Amino acid sequence: MTGMWEEFDAESLATREAFSKDRDFVWGWYEWRRAMVQRCPPNSAHLAIAAMVSCFPKLTLITQNVDDLHERAGSKDVIHLHGSLQQPRCYSCGDPYVLPSRIPGELPDGGRLAPPQCPSCGGWIRPGVVWFGEDLPADSWMQAKMAVKTCDVFFCIGTSSSVYPAADLPFEAAERGACVIQVNRTPTELDRVSNYNLKGKAGEIMNALYRVIWGQHRNCF
């Protein structure tokens, strides 16, 4: 939260109430965030995870992030538990909306930007993220739960393991006998059940793991 946004609390903007009260301001904030994300390239962790797909019979990628960095790194069929900045929908009818390719840089009128209207019902388009107080997308949550039930190895990378219900997933995997590997810079509640706790930056650790373990695999990049 920098510049014009530094006096605002992100949690106060990420709610249905905030959108109802001042939709132009909330939409402007999310478009500013989308523009910031588009200027950021995938890091070495995103790239290593995308490369790991070819090293396993099956790899399910579940993320709490709302950016598209995994997709831009080359990962397919990413499960976004908290929605995506790239997938807005109608506030009224729920229909998906295709965003224009243009992403605003500097926003006019103190950060306000009027959201587009739904072609189907005329309702206002809202950001495609899960706001505080909202349920996770049912389809995404079901896919994540099914993956946990059948996985052999569960990597938990760069998360505090404190945002529920997503934080339950690695614990469920551990209970079912999967090998749980945590990659994090600081200790979390998951430390006590993880088979391996790898301390450090996700980009450095995942890149090193890929190079050492899978880098010479004939099917890997």
UniProtKB/TrEMBL annotation:
<dbReference type="GO" id="GO:0017136">
    <property type="term" value="F:histone deacetylase activity, NAD-dependent"/>
</dbReference>
<keyword id="KW-0808">Transferase</keyword>
<dbReference type="InterPro" id="IPR050134">
    <property type="entry name" value="NAD-dep_sirtuin_deacylases"/>
</dbReference>
<feature type="domain" description="Deacetylase sirtuin-type">
    <location>
        <begin position="1"/>
        <end position="221"/>
    </location>
</feature>
<protein>
    <submittedName>
        <fullName>NAD-dependent protein deacylase</fullName>
        <ecNumber>3.5.1.-</ecNumber>
    </submittedName>
</protein>
<dbReference type="InterPro" id="IPR026590">
    <property type="entry name" value="Ssirtuin_cat_dom"/>
</dbReference>
<dbReference type="GO" id="GO:0070403">
    <property type="term" value="F:NAD+ binding"/>
</dbReference>
<dbReference type="Pfam" id="PF02146">
    <property type="entry name" value="SIR2"/>
</dbReference>
<dbReference type="InterPro" id="IPR026591">
    <property type="entry name" value="Sirtuin_cat_small_dom_sf"/>
</dbReference>
<dbReference type="GO" id="GO:0016787">
    <property type="term" value="F:hydrolase activity"/>
</dbReference>
<keyword id="KW-0378">Hydrolase</keyword>
<dbReference type="InterPro" id="IPR003000">
    <property type="entry name" value="Sirtuin"/>
</dbReference>
<dbReference type="InterPro" id="IPR029035">
    <property type="entry name" value="DHS-like_NAD/FAD-binding_dom"/>
</dbReference>
<keyword id="KW-0520">NAD</keyword>
